[in-house]
Amino acid sequence: MTFALSREHETFRRSVREFAEAEIAPHVAQWDKDHHFPVDLVHKMGDLGLFGLTAPEEFGGADGDFTSLCVAIEELGRVDQSIGITLEAGVGLGILPLLAYGTQEQKEHWLPDLVAGRTLAGFGLTEPGAGSDASATRTRAELDPSTGSGQAEWVVNGSKQFITNSGSPITSCVTVTARTGTRENGSPEISAIILPAGTPGFVAEAPYDKLGWHISDTHPLSFTDVRVPADSLLGERGRGYAQFLATLDDGRIAIAALAVGCIQACLDLCVEYAGERTTFGVPIGTKQGVAFQISDLAVMAQAGRALTYQAAAMKDAGAPAKDVKQAASIAKLYTSESAVTATRIATQVFGGYGFMEEYPVARFYRDAKILEIGEGTSEVQRMLIARGLGLPVE
């Protein structure tokens, strides 16, 4: 299977790079310092068609491939990781579940604004005591058939944490997993329910004070007797957790693209700096100790990009789900850990300047660590890879 980018993909890459350099690069340091979420930029990304890359034309999308989305995420992430994750989560965790599991009515209601970048949607899986462990989910939804309106309603109580795009001024909804019953074997029945922002009892708590991703919108959520119509169920009742796991498989490829952008940024910054910064009368790039470290960055970028776009090509080609899952985990594991290493190398190459917030490498250093955690930790990826190899790992 080929995973070489087409001429159209490369042309698209250049257009996104030009957009990022013009619309993000001049402002990103101040946005990061202020923890400012740039709504106007999100709208501009929507105007460029970034949120609609994989959506059908009937909802205003380009009906394109997943590879194009990865290209866009990589190029945005090369300038700033927070902006890259805003797109990744907006599409991968907001739009794609609606496309995959939503009814026609749900799609027609939510997708046009999401695809246009006028609004954002969140994905609520993680809780204070639950993430990969579905049985630990404590958020509950009970179906109340006897409401005053005559229409049955879900009544949701619980909380979620670390939810991206969940409390911004343009967040329209968050899809959450909740216990909707108990199976015959005693395990919880987990379903997915769409909660519109602004519904009474649905509160996006104060944003987190994060180590990195300062521009990204991230909140804990609480639900107190949140009532939504019965038709707010996303997909089949009891299949919510399985739906979200399938969503995460795609998301891991997109996170790998974000990590590749981080690695490429470190490479670009280091090549420029090592050619200009002099010690003992010569550029530091003439020193093997520096040059070899930067060479390692080039290897990481090339290898990570190959793994990422191979996985994306497999998804676009309709490869078996288990093969895509394996490729996604391998790409996510390698690129996220390489991104953390790359930012450490870049900070070292910059020396004392790398420790100063006025230099982008400091921001990338802070932003990189979450790549090893979000959408499945490195430990989870190793477990999934081992299972894919047929090993009896728990």
Key features?
Butyryl-CoA Dehydrogenase, subunit A, domain 3, 394 residues, Butyryl-Coa Dehydrogenase, subunit A, domain 1, oxidoreductase, 11 helices, alpha+beta, four-stranded mixed beta sheet, 10 strands, four-stranded antiparallel beta sheet, AcylCoA_DH/ox_N_sf, Butyryl-CoA Dehydrogenase, subunit A, domain 2
Q: What can be said about this structure in brief?
A:
With 394 residues, the protein is of the alpha+beta class. The chain has helices at residues 7-23, 28-34, 39-47, 66-79, 81-101, 104-116, 240-276, 288-316, 321-350, 360-368, 378-388; strands at 120-124, 140-144, 153-164, 171-182, 188-196, 202-204, 218-229, 233-234, 278-279, 282-283. Helix 1 packs parallel to helix 4 and helix 7 runs parallel beside helix 9 (321-350).
Summarize the structure in words.
The mean pLDDT is about 95. The protein is α+β, with helices and mostly antiparallel strands. It has helices at about 5-25, 30-35, 40-45, 65-80, 80-100, 105-115, 240-275, 290-315, 320-350, 360-370, 380-390; strands spanning about 120-125, 140-145, 155-165, 170-180, 190-195, 200-205, 220-230, 235, 280, 280-285. About 50% of the residues are buried. It is globular. The chain folds into 3 domains: about 5-120, Acyl-CoA dehydrogenase/oxidase, N-terminal domain (Butyryl-Coa Dehydrogenase, subunit A, domain 1, Orthogonal Bundle), CATH 1.10.540.10; about 120-240, Butyryl-CoA Dehydrogenase, subunit A, domain 2 (Beta Barrel), CATH 2.40.110; about 240-390, Butyryl-CoA Dehydrogenase, subunit A, domain 3, CATH 1.20.140.10. A hairpin with a 5-residue loop joins strand 4 (about 170-180) and strand 5. The chain has 11 helices and 10 strands. The strands form 3 sheets. It has a 4-stranded mixed beta sheet with strand order 1-4-5-8, with helices on one face. Pfam families: Acyl-CoA_dh_1, Acyl-CoA_dh_M, Acyl-CoA_dh_N. Keywords: FAD, Flavoprotein, Oxidoreductase. This is Acyl-CoA dehydrogenase family protein.
